[in-house]
Design brief:
Ubiquitin-like (UB roll); alpha+beta; 34% helix; eight-stranded mixed sheet
């Protein structure tokens, strides 16, 4: 048998034909799969001559996805063994965990989860092997004849599966169909599932998992389809890693912006309005106004002109832009009026193009920067609507820069610097960048190869020069061009996608945008889309969770509360409050019948930055007792000094 020449961990080696990934790393249980020539493979994969082979360890991002996918299979096997009539939906890995959808007669209960967990433990203990088989479509249909949802997935096979159904790429996203058999130690078939893989070698390679919750989910995310039962779980490379994750979840639950939004009286989602449509209460409205005033001023300082556009438009505008048909599924249905179809605005860029096109433009005007706080409406599926971070009605701090091709690189750097400085002002300082490019195999992207290459290279150059970590996102581009997104880590280490900067060579052509160049010729500008917050709603939700509701003074709806020791001290504190208001500080005086200690507790529950207490001695000295959110207190502080300290904290945007 002839030897093969392969590269392992950067070194060339000679191995026998038939060598598998497991043979290359014998005894290392942290290696659960391999990457061969860039593709993830099972550990039992036979390496090929000339291949570059790398280990995939369970703690790596790819390793965790494989581990979680395998755990989802074990859960599905347990469900079907306990509930033989259960039909399988989709069971992909997701961020920090996995889920599997089931069609069952009755919803799962907490007791059911306990039974499923117990059966999973037995399956893991049995050490069943995951064995991959390539099958034809006809064979797959025959084997899975009793699984109607799997039969539907078979028809979605290929790169487009991810767009057709959430999680479908994990099952039928490859170029061929495969079934994974769970095989007992005696070689008998225990269970099987349609799956792309790869998987861990055996169920014993699943060291730590936990079933988290049950939710209802429509098949393929459509309310027109059957409602299934979705079981969520999490899986990790060790018990310690699982324990750490559960601790983070506890902390995240305390910071849930939906919970804090109610407790702090910031916003709500009335059923009468419909899913994903928020109303902001007075305190939430103050934060929103501060954010809007800030971002409007910053845009003006950065050379943008403020514009405004209507909430609805004729259908033809979105056909010109290309959003119809590409984004039709995420737009609200049209309204028919006066013989025309009108759509709620789902994006601002087409209308900004009309402003650019409203008169002749010269190269001397470029970069032309337009900015709008534009309300847009997107028909997010009910299963993904989530508080303020995923809504159907949102306000985007949307800007569009029209530049010459030569100006594009400098403008992207300018926008990236703008975004990062903005986030630092709001207390976010840990970032990385994601570069989303097109999938050359997909037909959803428009434009020539050369246009995409130039646009991608321009964005990549600006991203690299920023010095931030750059993570590739192949296939994640918008249909009209690649983009950079700024990912920020919050106070407990979670990642949030915030700003996006998109290079667009398509829409200027579709709208016939032109400017007169220095030589008198007519040229097409490059259009650069950018949203700094992303949306006001989403960014506010992120800030609530980042600060756990304890906003820095400049953002806090109420910055100071005056707490009198007795009712006799109310007039004095009102005079102090008047000085603060004159200095632009948001202040209230608690005149309720509660005792002083309860007033302090109320202020702490509302997470107010500063409390000013006053009694007889304070009144006599024209002073206050200055109490901070963390419980520290300074007594006998002159009123003017207290006002100056508060004003400085607000102006400096510091946290207290």
């Amino acid at each position: 048998m002839s030897d093969l020449r392969i590269t392992v961990d950067g070194s060339e080696r000679s191995v026998a034909a038939g060598t598998t990934g497991a043979d290359l790393w014998p005894g290392d249980r942290s290696v659960i799969a391999v990457r061969a020539d860039g593709e993830l493979k099972d550990l039992g994969y036979d390496v090929q001559d000339g291949s570059v082979v790398e280990p995939v360890v369970s703690s790596s991002p790819d390793g965790l996805a494989i581990l979680r996918h395998s755990t989802a299979h074990v859960m599905a096997q347990a469900v079907q063994q306990l509930y033989p009539d259960a039909k399988l939906g989709i069971g992909p890995p997701v961020e920090n965990g996995f889920y599997y959808d089931f069609d069952v007669a009755e919803p799962f209960t907490p007791d059911d989860l306990g039974r499923i967990d117990k059966r999973m433990q037995q399956i893991i203990k049995d050490g069943q092997s995951f064995s991959r088989r390539i099958v034809t479509e006809d064979d797959a249909r025959a084997e899975l004849a009793d699984e109607p949802y799997k039969l539907e997935l078979i028809g979605l096979k290929g790169p487009g599966a991810a767009d057709a159904a959430e999680g479908a790429a994990a099952e039928v996203g490859g170029g061929e169909l495969t079934i994974y058999d769970n095989v007992a130690k005696d070689g008998s078939l225990v269970w099987k599932d349609l799956c792309r893989g790869p998987h861990v070698p055996t169920t014993r390679h699943i060291p730590a998992y936990k079933l988290m919750r049950v939710a209802a989910a429509y098949w393929r995310g459509s309310e027109m389809n059957p409602q299934l039962q979705r079981i969520y779980g999490t899986a990790w490379e060790s018990r310690d890693a699982l324990k750490d994750h559960l601790h983070r979840l506890e902390e995240a639950a305390k910071r849930d912006h939906r919970k804090l939004g109610t407790e702090l009286d910031l916003f709500s989602f009335p059923d009468e309005l419909g899913s994903g449509l928020a109303v902001f209460h007075p305190k939430g409205g103050i934060i929103r106004r501060v954010m809007e005033d800030y971002v409007r001023r910053r845009h003006e300082e950065e050379g943008f002109s403020f514009v405004a556009t209507p909430h609805i438009t004729k259908q033809e505008l979105f056909e010109t832009s290309g959003h119809l048909p590409y984004y039709a599924d995420t737009m609200f249905p049209p309204m028919e009026m006066e013989g025309a179809h009108y759509y709620l605005k789902a994006m601002n860029c087409p209308m900004h193009n009309l402003i650019f096109r409203s008169r002749g433009r010269s190269y001397r005007e470029l970069p032309l920067r337009l900015f709008e706080l534009g309300a847009v409406y997107r028909f997010e599926k009910s299963g993904v609507v989530h508080g303020l971070t995923r809504v159907r009605g949102l306000t985007m701090d949307d800007s569009h820069s029209y530049v010459t091709p030569e100006q594009a690189n400098a403008e992207i750097k300018h926008l990236l610097g703008f975004c990062l400085s903005l986030f630092r002002d709001f207390g976010l300082a840990d970032f990385y960048l994601e570069l989303s490019t097109r999938d050359a195999e997909s037909d959803k992207f428009i434009g020539t190869d050369e246009q995409w290459e130039i646009a991608t290279a321009t964005l990549e150059e600006a991203a690299v020069e920023s010095g931030l970590e750059l993570v590739p996102d192949p296939g994640g581009a918008a249909y009209y061009g690649p983009k950079i997104s700024v990912q920020a880590r919050d106070a407990i280490g979670r990642n949030w996608q915030l700003s996006t900067i998109q290079y667009d060579f398509n829409m200027p052509a579709r709208f016939g945008l032109e400017y007169q160049a220095g030589d008198g010729s007519r040229q097409q500008p490059v259009m650069i889309h950018s949203a700094k917050f992303g949306s006001i709603e989403r960014f506010l939700g992120v800030l609530v969770e980042h600060y756990a509701g304890a906003f820095p003074p400049w953002l806090a709806p109420v910055q100071v509360v005056g707490i009198p020791i007795t009712d006799e001290h109310v007039p004095y504190l009102q005079s102090v409050a008047a000085k603060l208001r004159a200095a632009g500080v948001r202040v209230e005086v608690d005149e309720s019948d509660d005792r002083m200690q309860k007033k302090i507790r109320n202020a702490q529950r509302q997470k107010l930055p500063f409390m000013l207490l006053a009694g007889d001695e304070d009144v006599a000295k024209d002073a206050v007792s200055f109490r901070y959110r963390n419980g520290e207190q300074k007594n006998g502080v002159p009123v003017d000094d207290a006002v100056a300290e508060i004003v400085k904290a607000v102006a400096d945007r510091v946290q207290v």
